[in-house]
Amino acid sequence: MAQLILKPGKERSVLRRHPWLFEGAVASLDGRARPGDTVEVTDGRKVLAKAAWSPSSQIRARVWTFDPDESIDDAFFKRRVAAAVARRQALPDLQGQEGLRLIHAESDGLPGVIADRYGDTVVVQLTSAGADKWRNAIVGALRNATGCDRIYERSDSELRGREGLEAASGWLLGTAPAGDLVIAEHGVRMNVDVVAGHKTGFYLDQRDNRLLLRQLAAGKRVLNCFCYTGGFSLQALAGGAQEVISIDSSAPALATARANLALNPQLDAGRAQWCDANVFDELRRLGEAAARFDLVVLDPPKFAPSASHVQRAARAYKDINLNAFKLLAPGGMLMTYSCSGGVGLDVFQGIVAGAALDAGREARIVRRLQGAADHPVALAFPEGEYLKGLLVQA
Ligand code: SAH
């Protein structure tokens, strides 16, 4: 096995159990390794970890194990996958969820591996050279841990390019289900398009926050911006909202949102309006029309995929939050999110505070929001905390 030799001092993050080894931490590679091969990580004296080698990425290696005696083989993946699934089974909120993240990459000790379960279908996304190499072991382990016979690969994330990998999608086990794939979330039925939907088909991370919106929605006028397939919108209707206006710029997402509403005859469809528009423009238009809402949700896409985009992203967050504050009725609430890894909670809170100030609104945080428990954040890996939100009351 080749040895990755660290520069002096660079062993510190490994000793803190951080799983990434950047280009600048690597003194040399002793021996030969192909992309995805397992290498020993050493400070020149002793082996500290075993990691997957990724020569084309700035993250040159991702640690599989900090135990130098642990072998990286099929049994390793079987253990790690089974442990991730068992952790979820131990959490009451997650028991019985039809849509569930089973593996959350680094935070579950499996860098580059995402796995989501929708009913009896599992969708995997492999985003690193190491994960790609161990595809068969991961699929076997997932089948073993879940009993699911349908496993679909959605490895089309832009992250793969940085690892020197091509996109890869298709059924790895079983075939497409005969009809639509539908899951129930808090009793609301939702279509999941694992082939063409965003991410692996659905934004599972917002499950708890959608329930919170439902609890706040009775009798309220709700504006849901960046609605995708209507997850927040349908929960607001289920909570008895008076009206729900939902905006998205994706026609396919809105078509699925409408289909989702039709799947739920218990909801009053007459209270829902779907608006195919750019949120930035539509918030201004609503402001000019003097519209007012009791609850506004802002769940935009990742404006800052990396630290280099933070300035531009900050302007975009400021713009939508400012215009959303202007639309809030007295006592109204704004539920606002950022899923940009490059924008930390402090920065995001500062942007929202600036937006309120410029809108001339006084407001206070009544709840901090995060991803659901099936999207854990390893203590040694704060980078895993991408989703942050604030519930702000005017
Ligand atoms: N809240 C959703 C997930 C939102 S994902 C849920 O709970 O499922 C972000 C959405 O923003 C995507 O559907 C995308 O189509 C949409 N989007 C991106 N940029 C947009 C823009 N400028 N205006 C309107 N919608 C946009």
Structural commentary:
The chain is an alpha/beta fold and 394 residues long. The chain has three domains: 3-65, PUA domain (Archaeosine Trna-guanine Transglycosylase, Chain: A, domain 4); 74-173, 2-Layer Sandwich (Transcription Regulator spoIIAA), CATH 3.30.750.80; 182-393, 3-Layer(aba) Sandwich (Rossmann fold). Helix content is 29%, strand content 29%. The strands form four sheets. It has a seven-stranded mixed sheet, with helices on both faces. The mean pLDDT is 97. Bound molecules: S-adenosyl-L-homocysteine. S-adenosyl-L-homocysteine is lined by residues 203, 206, 226-229, 231-232, 247-250, 253, 278-280, 299-301. S-adenosyl-L-homocysteine binds at residues 203, 206, 226-229, 231-232, 247-250, 253, 278-280, 299-301.
Write down the overall geometry: globular
How many discrete domains? Answer: 3
The unreliable regions are: none
* Class by alpha and beta content: alpha/beta
Work out the radius of gyration. Answer: 22 Å
